[in-house]
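User: For a reading group we're discussing how well predicted structures match intuition. Take Natural resistance associated macrophage protein. Before you show the prediction, I'll give you the sequence so everyone sees exactly what went in.
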Amino acid sequence: MKTERDGDVLEESVQEPDLYSPVSPLPQDQAISTYFEEKVPIPEDDRAKMFSFRKLWAFTGPGFLMSIAYLDPGNIESDLQSGAKAGFKLLWVLLGSTIIGLLLQRLAARLGVVTGMHLAEVCNRHYPTVPRIILWLMVELAIIGSDMQEVIGCAIAFNLLSVGRIPLWAGVLITIIDTFVFLFLDKYGLKKLEAFFGFLIPIMAISFRYKYVRVAPDQAEVLKGMFLPYCSGCGAEQLKQAVGIVGAVIMPHNVYLHSALVKSRDVDRGNKKEVKEANKYYFIESTIALFVSFLINVFVVAVFAEAFYDKTNIEVNAKCNASGSPHTDLFPLDNSTLQVDIFKGGVVLGCFFGPAALYIWAIGILAAGQSSTMTGTYSGQFVMEGFLNLRWSRFARVLLTRSIAIFPLSWVAVFQDVRHLTSMNDFLNVLQSMQLPLALIPILTFTSLTSLMNDFANGLVWKISGGVLILLVCAINMYFVVVYVTALNSTVLYVFSALLSIAYLSFVIYLVWICLIALGVSRLDFTGSVRFPPAVLIDEQPEFDS
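Assistant: Thanks. Here is the predicted 3D structure of Natural resistance associated macrophage protein, as structure tokens, for the group to look at:
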């Protein structure tokens, strides 16, 4: 294939790989553009400084967009359930999950900066056709599942804010329609779009911080739960909740998203110093962004731990009845432990702390749902374009994913009640957990290849620690899936799940096999069919005039 640029003709060879094509990283201007046409310029700084706030500001944006996935309605529900079921005892799990998430996001950002391609594009170039299609379908499934959770959160928020006047099915439709409206913001410039997302994060922070101040949890207990990795008196229910926290925090499509978002800055990949600098500032920005998201998650856990840990249904029923709440029937007259979700969480806050607490909670949930549903849409766009090399408009992309999500949600919203709608989150969390290895294994594989990452490939420490972390996260999430399936109590579902598990594990083992070879265990390449591209140093990559 020939491409022309400024009168010069460049020859590019394209071939179908046995397993990996010997394709070098594309020059920056030749890489497929899947983000906005606009590139944010990086200011020049002639002074030899280790750190520049001007440059940090220029790189600020992708990390905060990525961090929104750590604040979606699925995470908020996991937080409130953790506080209500285990008190402050699982805050250390939230902290550890966020740190692991930061390390994985670092790998995603480095892949995008160094290669000029995001993870879906790299998978498209280096995996054979059949595994590539399977991987794409599974990632799309994860995105649709996440999309459904976000729409559920927004629909519940609209219902709470309108005191039930907006039914759930109408909330679902409003969320789907207003996403199109918000996506038109990118027409006004990338920084303005990022500023809009940046506006939604403070709304969440203020809403949930208000609850934190209002409830005034014991600060000593908060710190103890955060830094003491122990859960005294915890049983199977708390263990399941701990696993659920890991699954809610570390989301598969977020790895694909972040590797694409970092392409929005004007970085010369032919200049090793600029690439190294970009990696540094992106990591700093991601650290700040995830620290903010962690604090917001802590606010939610601490509020429900202080106010509702070990509360019984009959206690809550009496309090709601005394406050005149119309939702008293949500809490049966028994001494079983209170079970909460996003909807019940708002109701109990209103019962104990007044109507203002309910409305502020709903505003926070609405901000979380609206922001995460838009970033989820961008994730879907990047994944589809990268894996299939399709160039769909954002409108078409949103229409497709929302159409897939709307049918099951609308059916439940119209014919069932809010309890059935929120209970879908358990199934969707399991769906997300199953997709996680399909993002983590490829990102470790490709960031470990010297031939792809050049001088920025993972070192031995990162290869080992990355492998251990991914193994740990995948094992935790598989446990969550097993617990969910065994609770179904259906022989037919058991058989179906067993057959599905065999196919799923076979594919995961295939990805692990490729990953181990990329990590240097060449003896596993029994047939000699795994070929990696030759190394190309960054300084030797061709540079083009802009």
